[in-house]
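User:
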Amino acid sequence: MENMEIVFPRLFFTGNRLLGERVENVSRTLGDLRGIFADVDAFSRMPQNMPAYEVSSFLPEQEGTPGGLYFGITYLHPGKVGNEYFMTKGHFHANIDRAEFYWGLEGEGMLILMDQSRRVWAERVFPGSLHYIPGGVAHRMANTGNTLFSFAACWPSDAGHNYREIADHGFAARLLEVDGKPQLIGV
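Assistant: Predicted structure:
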């Protein structure tokens, strides 16, 4: 009988942190989010080097490989530009029919979704909530709390990211704080 090897995993998900071999980390500052907030004056008065969010990702396959999966955790800082919550850039998938899962880890936020007809809706995100994002739906997250908001994601390695569509046309609604509560407001 042949000896079989037993190995430790290469990736650890502990305390809402992603650690291990080949974990990639990307940081975004407020300045990296120029053009996504409505209140341009408030944005210009804020420190452009202020941290907005960080992403830790495990990408075991080359991007574009069919059948592979990626895993990541995003850490979105609290704050507002005017009355608009700090948020991620948002994107459609380049391979438009690819779906994705998000789930809440810590803090509170909103998953903002927009289909190709520009219909917008949002889902409340909190520790333990699970969110299915179908293909053809743009998505971004906003931190609606006063603490760090983190969430995990799993998506196909051939999904790609189409940030350009959102950069050029935005979402058809904005998530604003109105009377102390988050509300979607059409643009």
